[in-house]
# Entry
Amino acid sequence: MQGRVGLNSSIQELPGIGPSRARLFGRLGIKTVGELLFWFPRQWEDRSECQPVAGVKPGSRVTVRGRLGRVEEIRPRRGLTITKFELTDGTGSLALVFFNQPYRKGQLRRGQEVMATGKVEMRYGELQMNSPEVETVARQKGLHSGRIVPIYPATEGLTSRLLRYAVFTALKACGADLEEIIPAEIRERQGLLPRAVAIREMHFPTGWEQVQRARRSLAFEELLLLQLGLLYDREEGEGIAHGPDGELVASFLAQLPFTLTGAQKRALAEIARDMEGKRPMDRLLQGDVGSGKTVVAAYALVKTVENGYQGVVMVPTEILAEQHYLNLSRLLKPIGIEVALLTGSMTGKEREMVLQRIEGGGARVVVGTHAVIQEGVDFARLGLVVIDEQHRFGVSQRSTLLKKGEACDLLVMTATPIPRTLALVFYSDLDITVLDEVPPGRKPVETYWVSEKIATRVYAFLRRQVGEGRQAYIVCPLVEESDKLEVQAATELASYLQEKVFPDLKLGLLHGRLPLEEKERVMEEFRRGEIDILVATTVIEVGVDVPNASVMVIQNAERFGLAQLHQLRGRVGRGEYQSYCILIGTPTTEEGRQRLQVMTEVTDGFRLAEADLKMRGPGEFFGTRQSGFPELKVADLMEDIGLIPQARREALQILSRDPHLTDPAHTALRHALEGLFGQNWWERRA
Ligand code: ADP
Ligand code: MG
# Structure
């Protein structure tokens, strides 16, 4: 069918794009003309000003304009052809040089007026521009020079130049079809450019200021959509109104071996207010490693139990589930609360029994992995859901769990602290509590980064610390692909160290494949000080808590991410003793070196998270790729951080007036949200 080219047309409808180029575009995820328009330049180059050749400085990148003179073809050796054009502009001349592109001779002719952009160098006594981008002035459409030019993220076979031309024709064909999606009132208040103008200015800016405005307008649009998608259908209904703290909570608090920090007290008060209120609690609890989140979560669990409900704690891995189970049992069993563990590896009778205790209501608190959201897991009366987001769970998993009760309260905990404004993006639907204080008397952990070559000195240091009555951890290299190899490495390391290095000390071994009772036994021995040095895989990353331990040695530290290193380091410095973290590693990448370096300089988890975010970018940092979080095309969460609160305010206002976006004025907005979050995003919680 030969119709007018529109936003939904295949890009093959555009001039110059046939099936093979369309395949290359397809690799970038561009199939339609509309998608092409949203493939934005990564940067722009100012080619609006031509420099007189006489003033050009070697080493700089410039655009010059002049007439072509002599053409020369040189073959200095086999397999190399150099094509040289002389360009003269009245002030001087320089050589345009191409390597192995003899066809250039057919494209450019003596006497033509051209603009050329490239880096200028002084070579063989003459000014040369190597592989410049050249456009003939007579034919030019003002695409590749004489303006601020877009530079696109290109791929094999698709040059920036080709993309530029394709976008140009796409804009010409249907740039006018780009309809507004943000209501006029908001556009005005936020000073946004009309959408069609913003998109055109992104590709072919009429000035630097316009590019900035266009970028801001589109970034705002994207952040607004994101906020709308996340805030949409935020639970507003009636929830459980828990009663005020009673005897059970009192005895829980009374048996704590320490006084709560100010931050913990504030957190408890906020949680109490939420839980006692009618609206369901939706709260995020953030705090650095060691800030004492477990007690806060335990308080909420006790409170729900006191009110006759059950609480559930969902965590991403089995090991974490086991550890939370052990930690919470220690806090809750003494006051008579039964805690149950449910993981995917439980089968048969064991599983049946746990399920019965959950359904019968005997298990007041359940700790588990994804297993807790499966069908067949029925709670007698669920009142509180606690989620530990070591890695993000998808929104749908969260809501599946919430639906096991009626209008449950929700408490989400992050092990990786994130900057507050970003929390507004990724946990947009939650109120935020920050534990910004660690228990008193903690000293920052001194961190060192050393190479394997001085391992013997590290061992000598361990020995001295043990001599002073302390204990130590040695964490084995992470083997991403194979848990089995990891266990093997840990086992070998432990027996090597026991036999050859510390024959007189007591070493312990802890890894994920040990049965739960065995893990419990080893941990208990370590806790009682019967084990001097604990060799472990990353199973100790979380939840292990022995204040007498003062050294954490991490082998092949370059294999770990920053968040993980920080968690591991958080296993020491939990008591009164000065503690040390020794990172052994030889990174092969610059990023790896930076990571270990930053560990030695920064101990604050929030600052570390910011550094991590800068190094890896938000996508990697939040692991959003797995969680179905939409990809941002324009907005940069670091650069545009200031827009986030504004976008959030506008989104809240839209939804307060039109909660289901049924107002015809919001139809385009709704379509855009479907595009971003998938067709049925609004059914997520339904
Ligand atoms: P997080 O989960 O935030 O990393 P934890 O909840 O594991 O931290 O607590 C870290 C350690 O601090 C634990 O040993 C815990 O018993 C202890 N702790 C928690 N709160 C306090 C406090 N107010 N005073 C002293 N120690 C505390
Ligand atoms: Mg913890």
Notes: The pocket of magnesium ion (ligand 2) is lined by residues 293-294, 542-543 (CB under 6 Å). DSSP finds 23 helices and 21 strands in the chain.
